[in-house]
Amino acid sequence: MNKITDDFLTIALPKGRLENKIEEYLSRCGCSFSFAGRELIAFDNENKLKLLLVKNADLPVYVKHGIAGLGICGEDVITETGYEFYKIFEFPFGNTRMCLAAKRGDGFPKDLRTKVKIATKFPVFTERYFHSLGIPVEIIKLSGSIELAPILGLTHYIVDLVETGSTIKENNLEIIEELAKIKVYLISNPAYYKLNYKKVDDFVRRLQKGQFK
Prior knowledge:
By secondary structure, the protein is α/β, with parallel strands linked by helices.
């Protein structure tokens, strides 16, 4: 692990859907910050935190290699990397569902002797889930517009994150089954935590109380 030499707790934050919610939550805890213009590094109002704004999928990489000792991300991102982290705080926002979906009326795969073809952004999760059920799968990884796969006949099924389900419905698909609830965590590089556990634990206690002193 690359040693972080400054005295801040260094936290990687994800760009995208969680970005504003994280900023609001930390602000309510007394930890105010903002990224000026296109800057990707910021410090909190009390100079206790150094915050790095990174691409969601890259966040575990920065924490794994010790560039950031801490990070905030969903379980889906953690699972896909295969890295091991300490999950030290669960945030009360950002929860989603990992779901299996298909065209209306297709239902759950019936012939389990043949490989089920599934399109997804989450191949690791999908393979693990269906392997645990003893169902053989052929996974096609896509980066976006997962709903197009069953519409265009690429696959019968998709596995994707679902918040409201509106996109699924608008594309004449339906959720067949909820596979898992995806939560958002403050994660820590294990080596970083061992070196900085007092400061990290203090930060977590303040998050739990809803205040940052």
